[in-house]
Amino acid sequence: MSLEQLTTELTSHFNRDDYETCAKLLTPIRIELIKNGLLVPSPDYRLNSNDMVITRSILEIGALVSINTHNMKEFSNYITLLRPFYILPQGTIPESSNRNKLLSLYLLLLLTQGDLALFHIELEKFQNFGKSVDELEGDEFLSIPIKFEKWIIDGDFNKVYEALSSKHKFPCKEFNLFETDLLNSIRLNIAENLESAYTSLPLENLKMLLFVETSKEATEFIDSFGWTSVNGVVYFNKKQNELEEEITDEKQIIKNALVYAKEMESII
Fold this sequence. Notes:
By secondary structure, this protein is mainly α. It has helices at 3-15, 19-35, 49-68, 72-86, 99-112, 116-124, 133-138, 143-154, 157-165, 179-197, 203-209, 215-225, 240-267, and strands at 200-202, 228-230, 233-235. It is elongated.
């Protein structure tokens, strides 16, 4: 089957939300793109602009198929392949209407992975597109990960939870697919802070803090962290070596304070 026939079939299945078939078609299509030297835009732009637009569209379909089939590694690979098309000099090919959507989804993926450093690096790249901070925050797609990141940094997890619960507010359905992973990432962050700050908490308080609605979900989370639940109270069991390290650190702090006090006394 020719590249043109494969592309037509891919588009047809994608428009019907038949992502499984699309995933199967994408492998031979990418091979054909490589054979024809289309997968990466030529540095001197000798490729036909129409060919570049078609290739970019295929890769964008691949990225969306990967998200809808929950293959985030493949999604990241497609974003990598799309970057050269997104940074072509203005006027080389028409700007893609899917660019901000896909890059926003990638930013959300980074948030689910807790990679805030790379998140900021990716966001700064939009300066290459001539976008101001106000324009980024006003974009219907980019504004979502930007808001989420700010709320996470500020510890305002309630706003993230409320936004994720309001699925109808998202500009495209793919944003909803990050709900579980993003919530789990936030729960992990909260859980680690709770372990550091408390030795125990009432179960109902823990469920509220972790945005967990059912006792079954709470039990699964408690078990995954190795905590103990007794009579409605959750105990954050720290490992013995962690406790010993804390005691050693405290002793060292006291020792350093005493040495410092003696030195000050000798000076006086």
